[in-house]
Amino acid sequence: MKSLIYRFYLIEIKFLSFFWALIHIIKARCEPLFICLTIDCESRFENKIEIEKTSYYHCFFQGSLKMNELLKHYSWHATFFIDYPEIKIFQNEENSPSQLIKILISDGQDIQLHLHPSLINSEKISDFSYYSRQRIREMISEGKKILASLSGKKITSFRAGGYSVGKAERIISALEDEGFVVDSSVMPGASNLHQAKFNFEKAPHFNWYHPDYRDFSKRGKAKIVELPITTIIKTNNNFASDFFRLDAKGIKIIKNFINYAYFKNRFKVITFIWHSKEIFDENGRLTENYENIKKTLLLLKKLIDSGKQIKVGSVEDFINQHLLMTERGRTI
Ligand SMILES: [Zn+2]
Question: In this predicted model, what pLDDT tens digit does every residue of 172-217 receive, in sequence order?
Fold first, then answer.
């Protein structure tokens, strides 16, 4: 009798361990968590019409080079969203944007289009809502051509300066007409920053999506894919937007958030946003922000070394891995 009971327990234990193993398999990630690294390359020109050359040199040129150096240490690639109006403004400088782009391309970095319309329009307005569809298309087309000729690559991703995408129908159709595949301007939780009008309070924040032609923050039928900038807290109270995106200020928050997102299968991609102007200050001194970015990259490396299924890459890598393999380019 005893041995019968013993056998019954053995079967039960085997069954339970099988059951737990099954739960574990179901809970494990189906695919690696993709960490998309993006850097907006621009000088500090907030509330200024003219950008000073020293700001360009330290904040745009040297800041981007320093980020490239950091990434090279890990053999990782990021997307450098280059503010194309500044290419026009500083093309004759000794350390020109075209020199910078050559270096970034030779190190395998991804170059894409960033655009602050206030720098190339007499109105000096940053909000895309202000400009006609035709003017928006002209700017996007010009930026695309300049970046393509300097980088020798196809330009297919876009980020609006200050997230100020304006009226969705104008900019989405202009981007699609110019052959863009990805927009990464939406910052879920944020609204009305930098004197621009937009509302991303309810935008999806854990995955990429096709937006609605009339509203970037809603899912819809646009062909373009929105790759939102990852934010941690969705809130209506937008008094300190910097706190919410995954910039380098809160390394502890970043660590906890990545661990959380890793075990939630619905998180497929995390998009970091950093700025070349936050690496050096205007006097050429390295910032605390730079130290935090270093710590963030080290954290990512440690997570990968510990066996976590995490991939780090650029928007170009994201397109190649997640969009091109699906039928008709549509993903969801
Ligand atoms: Zn910008």
Answer: 999 999 999 999 999 888 777 777 788 888 888 878 999 999 999 9
pLDDT tens sequence across 109-165: 999 999 999 999 988 888 898 999 999 999 999 999 999 999 999 999 999 998 888
Q: Does 322 map to a domain?
A: yes
* Ligand 1 centroid distance, CA of 242 (Å): 13
225-226 and 182-183 strand pairing = parallel
How many angstroms is it from 114 CA to the middle of ligand 1?
7
Interatomic CA distance for residues 124 and 114, integer angstroms: 16
List Cβ neighbours of 175 (8 Å cut-off, separation of 6 or more): 140, 158, 183, 224
Q: 70 is in which domain, residue-wise? A: 29-329
Residue 2 lies in a domain: no
Beta-carbon count within 10 A of 255 CB: 16
User: 57 in a domain, yes or no?
Assistant: yes
Residues 178/161, Cβ–Cβ less than 8 Å: no
